[in-house]
Amino acid sequence: MEVRAQAKHISMSARKVRRVIDQVRGMDVVGALEVLCFLPHAAAHPVEKLIRSAVANAEENVGLSRENLYISHIVADEGPGVMPGKGRRPRFGGRGRYRPIRKRSSHIAVVLSELDEDM
Q1: For the whole prediction, is pTM greater than 0.90?
Q2: For the chain, what are the domain ranges?
Q3: Using an 8 Å Cβ cutoff, are 70 and 27 in contact?
């Protein structure tokens, strides 16, 4: 049995989120939440929030126990470059050139699976 959760339009680049999710990939849920509590990266908070949401979905909708879950698949993809409502902001470069400021965002998806009893 697997449970999915996703967070969209996180205002952080996918590259910064990936260095956090690489540390918790394949871990059990309880251990991953403990690791995310003590990571100094700003991306740890949205990832922790997403995993807590997936655990709540598993407990409420499917009836799975928190101790029997592990992170089987977690990925961070790039979102839209300019957030809606933020607009494009100019950054003027050398020799009269225009360089846009890129406001990056990301989409994070996590899949939790149940541990096998024979492991």
Answers
A1: no
A2: 2-114
A3: yes
The 10s digit of each residue's pLDDT in 94-107 is 898 888 788 889 99
Which H or E run contains 31?
helix 29-38
Q: Which of 55, 48, 16, 22 is CA-nearest to residue 33?
A: 48
As a whole number of angstroms, the distance between CA 112 and CA 54 comes to 7
Count of alpha carbons within 13 angstroms of residue 119, beta-carbon side: 6
What are the φ and ψ backbone dihedral angles of 38, each rounded to 5 degrees?
-105, 5
The CATH architecture one would assign to domain 2-114 is Alpha-Beta Complex (3.90)
Rounded-to-integer distance, Cα 99 and Cα 36, Å: 36
User: Within 10 Å of residue 17's Cβ, how many Cβ atoms?
Assistant: 26
Q: How far apart are CA 22 and CA 1, in angstroms?
A: 23
